[in-house]
């Protein structure tokens, strides 16, 4: 199954785990498969991107996405969610207050999404069905993954996914935009800079020194990269 990842433009991360770097903003979408269920981490910037991810997941695993975890409430990570009918959606507690359709639409348009595509996705915006306030273990069938609310940091509602070691693969941490490799971490108006280093401390404690860390944008990194970025953010926002 894993040997097919590259046929669809995906990167294999581990045993039945892969991610795609979406065009435009280089945002990560990741899939984690168990025996019974299929988890998607983030859904893209438009319904078209979401539909493409849905079709690729079906082609790779022969079944539908059953669970979605949203890393944070920015347009390039959430606006494809409506393409996944019937999936159970998880987000950090309070994220629904930040998912304002008009703000997401206008932000998407400012960043280059066609007005029609942005409006369509905003009109069909899906709010999470499940709020994660601390940690939430999902059983995907023969495999458990941990959803952890480690924020605030990059936003007020940052959710990461820890995938335990399996089949010879190390622990994998899906970081969302708490970690960025392709450029300096972006701090918008909803960032909580003074809490961001602590969020990365929590992330590092979950994954440990040998884990693979998957940024919201950019190439896969290791713990030393995350630690260095944590220290840079501490200087940037004046915290220890």
Describe this structure in words.
This protein is of the alpha/beta class and 240 residues long. Helices cover 29% and strands 25% of the residues. The chain contains seven helices and twelve strands. It has helices at residues 47-61, 75-78, 95-98, 101-110, 115-123, 196-207, 223-237, and strands at residues 11-14, 17-21, 28-33, 38-41, 67-69, 88-92, 130-132, 135-139, 144-149, 159-163, 172-180, 212-217. The strands form two sheets. Strands 1-2-3-4-5-6-7 form a seven-stranded mixed sheet, with helices on one face. Helix 4 runs antiparallel to helix 5 (115-123). The protein is globular and about 45 Å long.
Features:
240 residues; alpha/beta; 7-stranded mixed sheet; 5-stranded mixed sheet; 25% strand; globular
Structural class: alpha/beta
Mean pLDDT: 96
Give the strand order of the largest sheet, numbering strands 1, 2, ... along the chain: 1-2-3-4-5-6-7
Radius of gyration: 16 Å
Low-confidence stretches: none
Hey, roughly how much beta strand do the residues contain? 25-35%
Q: Helix amount, in percent?
A: 25-40%
Summarize the structure.
With 240 residues, this protein is of the alpha/beta class. Helix content is 29%, strand content 25%. It contains seven helices and twelve strands.
Question: Mind sketching the topology for me?
Answer:
Elements (H helix, E strand, L loop, with lengths): L10 E4 L2 E5 L6 E6 L4 E4 L5 H15 L5 E3 L5 H4 L9 E5 L2 H4 L2 H10 L4 H9 L6 E3 L2 E5 L4 E6 L9 E5 L8 E9 L15 H12 L4 E6 L5 H15 L3
Parallel strand pairs: 4-5, 5-6, 6-7, 11-12
Antiparallel strand pairs: 1-2, 2-3, 3-4, 8-9, 9-10, 10-11
Helix pairs in contact: 4-5, 6-7
């Amino acid at each position: 199954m894993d040997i097919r990842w590259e046929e669809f433009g995906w990167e294999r991360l581990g045993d039945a785990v892969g991610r795609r770097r979406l065009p435009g903003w280089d945002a990560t979408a990741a899939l984690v498969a168990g025996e019974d269920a299929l988890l998607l981490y983030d859904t893209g910037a438009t319904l078209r991107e979401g539909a493409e991810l849905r079709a690729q997941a079906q082609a790779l695993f022969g079944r539908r996405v059953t669970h979605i975890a949203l890393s944070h409430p920015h347009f390039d990570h959430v606006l494809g969610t409506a393409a996944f009918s019937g999936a159970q959606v998880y987000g950090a507690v309070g994220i629904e207050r930040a998912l304002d359709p008009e703000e997401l639409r206008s932000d998407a348009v400012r960043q280059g999404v066609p007005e029609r595509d942005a409006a369509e996705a905003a009109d069909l915006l899906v709010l999470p069905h499940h709020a994660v306030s601390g940690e939430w273990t999902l059983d995907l069938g023969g495999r458990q993954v941990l959803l952890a609310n480690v924020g605030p940091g990059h936003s007020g509602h940052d959710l990461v996914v820890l995938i335990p070691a399996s089949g010879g693969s190390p622990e994998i941490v899906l970081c969302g935009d708490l970690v960025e490799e392709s450029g300096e971490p972006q701090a918008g108006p909803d960032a909580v800079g003074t809490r961001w280093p602590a969020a990365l401390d929590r992330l590092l404690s979950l994954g440990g020194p040998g884990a693979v860390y998957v940024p919201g944008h950019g190439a896969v990194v290791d713990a030393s990269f995350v630690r260095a970025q944590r220290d840079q953010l501490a200087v940037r926002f004046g915290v220890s």
